């Protein structure tokens, strides 16, 4: 039996669009660097592309919060590169954030608060209600490992290129590991969720929250007694 909700993770999270937006500053940096072989030209290209994305999204009526946060990240990366005079440092913030993401996502799974569930729950207005559904908790936990792998892949690619000061290769890797990798991650994690949820489960929008919210946990199983008390 198919799950009730039609949306995929990509549709719910707008993940591909956000990843494409995030790749444009890297395109601008690479263009400026290749044309002028200058840190200033590269950072200028990145900022022009970032401002273009912000203007385009605001014009379309998108929420300014996400695009402004992206612009802030590009500004910080550009400032680091300009202050140090090293073009590869434009990607230092990206490298550090991906390394931190590996730890944060892995820890969230271990403590049974998988970040993927928290993100989707916030988008759907469920808060943490999905945690009272053992099937959803298990599905989000398994699917979150796909996201951990995504960040591990980025660190494994970025770190040696950064150490070798390969600015052009870093920019190219940043582009390739943006929307294509995010699209693959969304598809893979969605596949894991669908494979993990049992047949007949109502889906992400409808967590089964009939379990008690008190001391019992989802692992405790049903709370109704197997036998009933009899009068003395």
TrEMBL record:
A matching Pfam family: DUF3159
Transmembrane segments: 33-54, 66-82, 102-124, 145-163, 169-193
Comp. bias intervals (Low complexity): 210-232
Region (Disordered): 202-232
Keywords: Membrane, Transmembrane, Transmembrane helix
Coiled-coil annotated residue ranges, if any: none
Protein origin, superkingdom: Bacteria
Protein name stated in the entry: DUF3159 domain-containing protein
Organism of provenance: Actinoplanes siamensis
